[in-house]
Amino acid sequence: MSIVGLLTFANFNGVMAQDAANAEATEQVAATTDSAAAEAVEAEATAEETAAAPVDDTKSFHQVLKEKYIQGGAGWMTPVLLCLIFGMALIIERILYLNMATTNVKKLLDGIEENVKGGNYEGAKELCRNTRGPVASIFYQGLDRMDQGLENVEKAVTSYGGVQMARLENNLTWIGLFIALAPSFGFLGTVVGMVQAFDDIEVAGDISPTVVAGGMKVALLTTIFGLVVAIILQIFYNYILTKIESLVDQMEDGSISFMDILVKYHK
């Protein structure tokens, strides 16, 4: 009986151990299956996100401008571009010149009055020489003729004022020319593009968007660029005119005050 009991207990333990091993193997297989399924789901989600993500094909302003320049045709876009380059070069030169020509007229007149009041005309002339701008140059011409009388001084101030005004308006004619040429070249490109479109229609024997698209694109792009260049140059041109008018007002008001000072202290 003891032997039978031992054998029965041993068999029971073996069956239990085998069941436990089978259960553990089943759990491992299930865990592996669940992990693989999770990885597959995650990979699928990543693939979907990648496919759904928009492609960044945004072009910079420089790239778009370059592309439109090429599409418009270098033969017609280049003259418009040259008008912009030369026009802006002259505009920058005028703006720098006019800014350097700006003078503190009140301070200059106070210095001249202080010197003239004491009879130091050479000191007043030296002050004008050391001050930049057309107003100081006009005052210097007047002081340089004090020995010829106030009438000659007034004539010198008036005459040299006209010279300085001409210098302020230097190169404005060329800027105006480029303002007119830019849209003119654009319209010329428009006409040429239209002629090209009609030539394409004649060759193809059919009126379709694909036939006339090339010529129409040249026509529209050259017109747009020509008008944009003209608008840019015109804005700066008007700014320069406003600056010149301000300087001319300073010259006129300063000349009147200058003559009043000379009349007041002239002996």
Short description:
The chain is built from 9 helices and no strands. The chain has helices at residues 2-52, 61-72, 74-101, 105-117, 121-129, 134-143, 150-168, 172-204, 209-265.
Strand content: under 5%
The gross shape turns out to be: rod-shaped
Q: Residue share in helices?
A: over 70%
- Tally of strands: 0
Q: What is the total domain count?
A: 2
Main beta-sheet strand count, sense and barrel state: none
Low-confidence stretches: 1-18
Integer average pLDDT = 76
Oligomerization: single chain
C-alpha Rg, in Å? 44 Å
SSE run: HHHHHHHHH
Helix/strand structural class: mainly alpha
Number of helices: 9
Distance between the termini: 158 Å
